[in-house]
Amino acid sequence: MIGRLRGILVSKQPPWLMVEVGGVGYELEAPMSTIYDLPATGKEVTLLTHYAVKEDSVALYGFLQEAERALFRNLQKVSGIGAKISLAVLSGVSTSDFARLVQAGDVVALTKIPGIGKKTAERIVVELRDRVDGLAVTLPGTGAQAHGAPLDPAGEATVALQQLGYKPAEVTRLVQKVAAEGDTAESIIRKALRAALGN
Question: Which of 49, 59, 176, 199 has the maximal Cβ count within 10 Å?
């Protein structure tokens, strides 16, 4: 099992990353919470990883914080939740905020995350309430720094949000609503996710 990678960040195209370790390029999927805090491409990065093997595929997921990886793994123990929804959860809400929602039994707020319906939200509250105690006090990465603005921030944000599970029409509406001149893709994504979740 691959538990951690340390190498050079070659590329980041949300939700995909590539890290070169000893001449080998590892392709990983990561939540936006991790992508916000990544260094510029060409710099060294250390990622905690989750290695997933299925019948027809092998996938590697990367996280900057243990709390993110722990929540990613715990979420997939809930019936009906896979890696895609787990990444959407981590991208849409911090680990500490998620823990508070679960402990408060806030099903309505949880259903605002892409892929989570009422029944799934109820299962999350029941099955994870006892597992999120440590996450409520963990400070999440907020990624205030933007490392080099892309050529088309709104376009990059649009693609990333669609990959997180939002419908194209909804993404267009969110991006148009929150994007401002000078915004980076990361800041547009962050504001769009807050708007989608009603924050």
Answer: 49
Neighbouring CB atoms inside 10 A of 81's CB total 21
What residues make up the domain containing 41? 4-63
Q: Is the pTM of this model over 0.70?
A: no
Residue 52 — φ and ψ, nearest 5°? Answer: -115, 130
Phi, psi torsion values for 46, nearest 5 degrees: -120, 125
> CA-to-CA distance for 69 and 50, rounded, in angstroms?
7
Instruction: Tell me the C-alpha distance between 10 and 185, whole Å.
Output: 18
Q: Are strands 24-29 and 16-21 parallel, antiparallel or unpaired?
A: antiparallel
In a domain, 76, yes or no: yes
Are residues 31 and 8 located together in one domain of the fold? yes
Range 176-180 contact pairs with CB under 8 angstroms and sequence separation of 24 or more: 179/153, 179/154
- pLDDT of 11-33, one tens digit each? 988 889 999 999 999 999 999 88
